[in-house]
């Protein structure tokens, strides 16, 4: 087979797919790279969608993973199409237009679909989700000063959208079905601080509330009917209740899935020559025999590179520490490791309005750290906390709790 016909195929042209394509070239692959995605856009980063893009601080072009010229120079073939079927035995992809693509190795970077509300009125034009650049393009113009915005969901996306809407001068109400914000993603004390921060910035937060229906008014605004019997008025409703991993292509092809595509430490699926990475991949934890799935920038960035090397015949193991952050107003929230594995939590108050919760397992080893505070000095402190969790060391709890003991000295 001529070198020009040897194909590395990537399904999903987002952050993971784009970074994997770039890495394939950097690693020396000279054959074809087919980067297939349903969106017309070149690969872009998602974190700015709920923040800088909505506030107008960044343009859609500035969200791009690389410049259009870089993709052209690398000879990456961006194919805007859906994939109808995958045949791992024949190593073929059937595209939406009926064309067949033969691949040498395949990366599934299909990400996820925004969860939708299954209630009356959820399909109204004023009820939107935020997952893509096109979603952001629809939401942005609606965040005009004085607009009534209802955000459904008190997770990271919902809170970031609420903060962006307030920065644009909108009147914002956030409703969350749970008893607190951020579910079990962070300690209750940090969730309470995030709650207070949003209320100080003018967001009306309603807990233990869920929408029952949306009803359109004559002026095209919406009534948001809550299960509690309350009714809210909204110009726009933005639903941020998470994603469902897009594993349907893999499932139909007989590849093992379990709320995502199951992979080993090399990010290889149960099908020979097929890998998966990013939001859709369920991979082995570095802290035990269980598997996890991560919807983070860091996960996308690092898994893409490992998957690309292994597509070329490597057996690199993915051992990165889970880590993510969320910017809200002038504060930042970070989580490193897997705090849920902790048997004991140690709270450190480093000053300047910040706090860090360290989680230790039953052997006293660090398995996670969650922090919240004004961006700046807190970010530097959390960088050290991440390094401590990365090492998984058993550290004296009193030293962790004592702000007089520098974290750097514990390294």
From TrEMBL:
SUPFAM superfamilies named among the record's database cross-references: FAD/NAD(P)-binding domain, FAD/NAD-linked reductases, dimerisation (C-terminal) domain
Domain Reductase C-terminal positions: 323-411
Cofactor(s) essential for the protein: FAD
Boundaries of every FAD/NAD(P)-binding domain copy: 9-304
InterPro entries xrefs: FAD-oxidoreductase/Apoptosis (IPR050446), FAD/NAD-bd_sf (IPR036188), FAD/NAD-binding_dom (IPR023753), FAD/NAD-linked_Rdtase_dimer_sf (IPR016156), Reductase_C (IPR028202)
Keywords annotated in UniProt: Dioxygenase, FAD, Flavoprotein, Oxidoreductase
Keyword presence, Oxidoreductase: yes
A Pfam short name: Pyr_redox_2
GO MF annotation: an example: dioxygenase activity
Protein name listed in UniProt: 3-phenylpropionate/trans-cinnamate dioxygenase ferredoxin reductase subunit
Organism from which the protein derives: Paraburkholderia unamae
């Amino acid at each position: 087979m001529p070198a020009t016909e040897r194909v590395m195929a990537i399904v999903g042209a987002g952050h993971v797919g784009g970074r994997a394509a770039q890495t394939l070239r950097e690693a020396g692959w000279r054959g074809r790279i087919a980067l297939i995605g349903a969106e017309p856009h070149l690969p872009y980063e998602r974190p700015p969608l709920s923040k800088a893009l909505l506030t107008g601080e960044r343009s859609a072009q500035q969200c791009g993973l690389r410049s259009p010229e870089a993709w052209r120079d690398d000879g990456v073939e961006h194919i805007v199409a859906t994939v109808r079927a995958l045949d791992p035995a024949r190593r073929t992809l059937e595209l939406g237009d009926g064309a067949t693509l033969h691949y040498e190795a395949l990366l599934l970077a299909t990400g996820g679909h925004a969860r939708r509300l299954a209630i009356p009125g959820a399909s109204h034009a004023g009820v939107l989700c935020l997952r893509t650049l096109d979603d952001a393009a629809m939401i942005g113009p609606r965040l005009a000063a004085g607009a009534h915005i209802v955000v459904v969901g008190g997770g990271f996306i919902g809170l970031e959208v609420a903060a962006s809407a307030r920065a644009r001068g909108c009147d914002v109400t956030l409703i969350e079905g749970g008893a607190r914000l951020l579910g079990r993603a962070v300690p209750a004390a940090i969730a309470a601080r995030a709650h207070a921060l949003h209320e100080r910035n003018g967001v009306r937060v309603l807990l233990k509330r869920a929408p029952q229906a949306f009803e359109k008014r004559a002026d095209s605004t919406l009534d948001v009917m809550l299960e509690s019997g309350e009714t809210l008025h909204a110009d726009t409703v933005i639903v941020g209740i998470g994603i469902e991993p897009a594993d349907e292509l893999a499932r139909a092809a007989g590849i093992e899935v379990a709320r995502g595509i199951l992979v080993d430490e090399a990010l290889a699926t149960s099908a020979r020559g097929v890998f998966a990475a990013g939001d859709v991949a369920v991979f082995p934890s570095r802290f035990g025999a269980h598997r996890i799935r991560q919807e983070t920038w860091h996960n996308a960035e690092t898994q893409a590179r490992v998957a690309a090397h292994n597509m070329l015949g490597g057996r690199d193991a993915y051992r990165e520490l889970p880590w993510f952050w969320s910017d809200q107003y002038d504060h930042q929230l970070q989580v490193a490791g897997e705090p849920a594995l902790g048997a004991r939590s140690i709270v450190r108050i480093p000053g300047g309005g910040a706090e860090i919760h360290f989680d230790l397992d039953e052997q006293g080893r660090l398995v996670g750290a969650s922090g919240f505070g004004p961006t700046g000095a807190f970010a530097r402190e959390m960088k050290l906390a991440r390094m401590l969790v990365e090492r998984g060391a058993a550290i004296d709890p009193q030293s962790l709790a004592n702000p007089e003991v520098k974290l750097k000295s514990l390294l």
